[in-house]
Write a structure and sequence with these properties.
The structure is a single chain. The protein is of the alpha/beta class. It folds into two domains: about 70 residues, Transcription elongation factor, GreA/GreB, N-terminal domain (Helix Hairpins, Orthogonal Bundle), CATH 1.10.287.180; about 70 residues, Transcription elongation factor, GreA/GreB, C-terminal domain (Chitinase A, domain 3, Roll), CATH 3.10.50. It is about 40% helix and about 25% strand. The radius of gyration is 21 Å and the shape is elongated. One of its GO terms (molecular function) is DNA binding.
């Protein structure tokens, strides 16, 4: 697996989720399985299969988080100057067609959640913004057509 860029807060959030899943949810599910198994009897019981499926999903998530952490690289700085859009900065943009102003924190794909203001540097908009300066216009081709944005502000975010 290739190196995964994370912010410090992203790394801590993933570590916190892993601890909760491994130390709280997993033991709870195992206990639930052990308590209910004698009542269900046959493995064909739909409730028994459902709880085993929940356990399998939980184990896959734990394994994924462990792989992310094992390959994580917490990036604190950037080789781009402070006046350019870069990893772990906040960028405020305006959609030129509708005037909507949005603020994003530039993060890696694992932390990305555009609805909550975390834009992946690997997304089309993220790639178009990277390395650009305040005041620049960014044009982006999308399936819905061409979109244009203006960068209003760039700020350092240490989190």
């Amino acid at each position: 697996m290739a190196k995964i860029l994370l912010t410090r807060s992203g790394y801590e959030e993933i570590l916190r989720e892993l601890r909760i899943l491994a130390n709280e949810e997993r033991p709870g599910l195992v206990h639930e399985i052990l308590e209910a198994a004698p009542d269900w009897g046959a493995p064909e019981d739909p409730d028994f299969r459902r709880i085993l499926a929940r356990k399998a999903r939980l184990e896959r998530r734990i394994e994924y988080l462990q792989q992310v952490l094992a390959n994580a690289e917490v990036l604190m700085g950037s080789n781009l100057p402070a006046d350019r859009v870069r990893f772990n900065c906040r960028v405020t943009i305006r959609h030129l067609a509708n005037g909507k102003v949005q603020q994003f924190r530039m993060v890696g794909p694992v932390e990305a959640d555009a609805q909550n203001g975390r834009l992946s540097t690997a997304s089309p908009l993220g790639r178009a913004l990277m390395g650009r300066a305040q005041g620049e216009r960014v044009d982006l081709e999308t399936p819905a057509g061409r979109r244009s944005y203006q960068i209003l502000d760039i700020s350092v975010d240490e989190a």
